[in-house]
Amino acid sequence: MSTHSLALISELIKIFCSQFKENLVFDSNMSTEAKESQKSDKDVHTIVADYYGKVLQSKKDLKTNACCTAGAPHPTIRQALKLVPDEIMEKYYGCGNPIPFGMKGLTVVDLGSGSGRDCYIASNLVGEKGKVIGVDMTDEQLQVARAHVEGYCKKTLGYQSINLEFRKGLIENLTDEEGANIKPDSVDIVISNCVVNLSPNKDQVLSSVWSILKTGGEFYFSDVYCDRRLPSHVRTHHVLLGECLGWTNKQFLFLFFITL
Q: Is 17 domain-assigned?
């Protein structure tokens, strides 16, 4: 590929990356009130952490049906779900099933793992020689997720050693040594269940995933998308933001980016 072509592709990526941050960029036609209501990255992280850590105590507290799985998963997954502790299941807020098969012995990372439901399933599917790491920024969720790890791995699954752990960190920076501290090129599979939409910097999430995946590694995700720009009152509504609607992935831009 020519130097000119590479430069052009680089510029296109920059343009499309900037579009992912459109919620932080003021539209010239936007009212002063709307501009003042825009959220910074830190604001969004705080709102999301507060919503999942303090507002929601179980899936019964959800105000919309956005954070719901529409259909039943594969029988193998359903069987694995029977072994997951009840408390973990009660605090599950995913919207699908991003868990692939054929993971025996692999290293798996779950973005925004929450109470850990998908991690517990993955722990079963990767086997004792595999490894599963859940990454979340919410203390309350991490506390629940960590509470059952030893009993699940050693008693329920009968493993001699624990293959499951949960780390506090931001999914936009998975290699941060003071956060998730996941080494570059060390992960076989990354999964995510209705979480990328919650990030104010989706391009950074994808870039961070790319950095930790080994050559040939794969990213499986279930998420919420929209086919047009959302109005300001939706993007800044705390409940809609918390329940995966306020910062929904813009479909065309997201799909374009992941194919580059």
A: no
Count of structural domains within the chain: 1
Evaluate whether residue 219 is within a structural domain.
yes
CATH classification of the domain holding 219:
3.40.50.150
- 251-259 vs 202-212: helix axis angle to the nearest 10? 20
pTM for the model stands at 0.74
Query: Which residue range(s) make up the domain with 50?
Result: 31-259
Which tens digit of pLDDT belongs to each residue from 120-177? 999 999 999 999 999 998 888 899 999 999 999 999 999 999 999 999 999 999 999 9
Considering the domain boundaries, does residue 11 fall inside one? Answer: no
Percentage of the chain modeled with pLDDT above 90: 44
Distant-in-sequence, close-in-space partners of 25: CB < 8 Å, separation ≥ 6: 18
Is the dihedral angle over the CA atoms 152, 156, 161, 164 positive or is it negative? negative
Residue 14 included in any domain: no
Residues 6+ away with beta carbon under 8 Å from 27? none
User: Distance (Å, rounded) from C-alpha 1 to C-alpha 200?
Assistant: 33
Whether 67 and 94 have beta carbons less than 8 Å apart is answered as yes
Copy the structure tokens of residue 117.
């439901």
Nearest to 132 by CA among 166, 179, 178: 166
Residues in the chain: 260
The predicted-structure confidence for 189-213, as pLDDT tens digits, reads as follows 999 988 887 777 788 888 999 999 9
